[in-house]
Amino acid sequence: MNDTKSPRAQGAWALPLLALAPLAVIGILADRTAPLWSSLSWGLWALSVVLVAVEWAWVLRHSTRRSAHWGMCILVHAILVWQLIALVLRP
Description:
By secondary structure, the protein is mainly α. The chain has one domain. The protein is about 75% helix and about 0% strand. The protein contains 4 helices and no strands. It has helices spanning about 5-10, 15-30, 35-60, 65-90. Helix 2 packs antiparallel against helix 3 (about 35-60) and helix 3 packs antiparallel against helix 4.
């Protein structure tokens, strides 16, 4: 089966980005010192890490070679690291 034709290959790395989007909104709009928002932010970040691991398992199993997939991979990892730094440096 050619992975470039499957719907899964076309949406690769989208789920971790969708999980990181609310985290960015919380960081911009919410009171960062509230314990509820802090625990919710860490939960969303952990969910994103799990989804990234799932995507890596899929990539390793199907050996994706398209450059668009690797571009999305780099974007997801950059945002994931950026959000981790923002969570750790939060007052």
